[in-house]
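Risk mitigation, structural track. In case the binding assays with EPZ fail to produce interpretable data, a predicted complex structure has been prepared as a fallback.
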Amino acid sequence: MDKYVINGGKKLFGEVNISGAKNAAVAIIPAVVLCDVPCKLRNLPNIRDVSVILSILENMGAKVDRDPTDPSAVTIDPRGITSYKVSCDDLVAKMRASYYLLGALLGKFGKADVPPPGGCKFCKRPIDLHIRAFEALGAEYKDIDDHIVLESDGLKGTEINFDPVSVGATINAILAAVKAEGKTIITSAAKEPHIVDLANFLNYMGANIKKAGTDEIKITGVKELRGPSDDSGEEISYTIIPDQIEAGTYMAAVAAAGGEITINNVTAQHLRSIMKVITETGAKVTVISDPNREYETVTVARRGDLRGCKNQVITSPHPGFPTDMQPPITALLAAANSTSTVVEAVWANRFSYVPELRKLGAEIDENKSSLTIHPVAGGLKGGTRKKPVSVRALDLRAGAAMVIAGLAAEGITEVEDAKYVKRGYEDIVGKLTALGADIRMVTYKEITDDSDE
Ligand code: EPZ
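Fallback model:
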């Protein structure tokens, strides 16, 4: 069991480098299952979800070589994967994105047998749209001994429409369709940056996917994914995009705590909706582009009062305000000097962390799908060394929200269950400490059942 101990109320200054995108990495690693040659992935974030999915692939027969000179690079040789069955139930249950193995194995073998996924359980997370997409491509779905089993005599391209828009189902449909016979058209497709990253990776390997990043994705099935077909002899390697939500979390952190930080390695285009909200709170956001560098830099400074947002913050699929930023932004707004409203329009209920924020003094009214966040006289308050305020990280983004609230609150905040934050943020303690935050991780042993991680 790990917890963060934060002595809040300290301004942040300095630079932070953003890691590779978790949600791109956890889709692209399973996509390697479809490839016919080894490939190297670069800029993988060093987070628990990535180690888990790599372990699952190893367990399935892939060879995974970590680059000794670059901890963010891994070469995966998928040729040892000879079965469509995944048997490491415990590992699969540790994360949500393990369900991308369904699309990948179905695409490779025409069959898949995968245990049920786990992951953050902030509300009910159905997979009916994934199954419907697989069925449309010609697979038959069965639930056998609690495993998700898909069988087919070969997949055939088709039209797939999603309602509601689903990131995971769009990714699974792409994975299944990429080697299917003929054309697949996905309408009402999700447009998140990691969908485009997945399509770019697969196209680099030899797939034919057009218009990823729009509502309508067109896929023409190919027989092989062998990487660039030229004879240049260049290593087959692909670099994962920067993590939009990690960048947004550091923006929210400095807006909450005050100070000025430089956030390196971002794609500003992916951050538009987040930057708009951060700017509304009174922080100054500046994008710096350098034609000689692939990624951009953003500086965020908050020197004056922290204001609430006049406009409602409403989550929606990309390019709207991301639901994964909703808990961190609520924590930021809870420290502001005027009222804000946050509406959650992607998930049916993603407010279970609100009672934890109230422990730090936050005044938040919860309605069905919205929060009214009131200013708190004197700001959020942690406790003393002897009597800290203890809050729980109930899931990954809820945990990020607790860290942000702890940075804003004067006094000591302890965030229990740091394991959830480690699932998706690389070295958050090291990165925040380098910015001047007073945060440390305490590890203590407890006889506990961690199987629900
Ligand atoms: C992805 O989850 C992300 N996870 C989530 O981030 C993120 O919150 C979510 O997209 C929305 O942006 C990964 O990429 C690994 P969805 P996903 O399918 O794919 C409904 C994080 O913190 N729906 O786009 O599971 C569903 O109930 C994680 O990094 C169905 O009805 O989300 C929801 O209302 C948490 N049936 C909406 O669609 C289905 O079969 C969007 O969910 C699937 C989804």
